[in-house]
User: Fold this.
Amino acid sequence: MVNQQTTYRIQQKRDKKRKRRKRLLFLLLPVIIIGIAIGIYLTNLFQTAKGVLDDSYAADGRENGSALRDGGETIDLKQGVYPSYLLV
Assistant:
């Protein structure tokens, strides 16, 4: 039969591992939640930007490649130049 001291040591090891796992979980949980929130924010931001660009194409009457700036001048969107209201 295993003596009481050995049983106690085994139990302490288990508790120590359990505490370590619990601590790790509590440390990682906020990181995971913040990461998900940033991902959702960026997704919404890019969806909004895409919608604004689609609207500017529709207002110009063209499918893609250029859009009208506020003053009426056409800018080329394929080169990475965007309407001024997106550069906020």
User: Anything to note?
Assistant: The mean pLDDT is 74. Residues 14-86 form one domain.
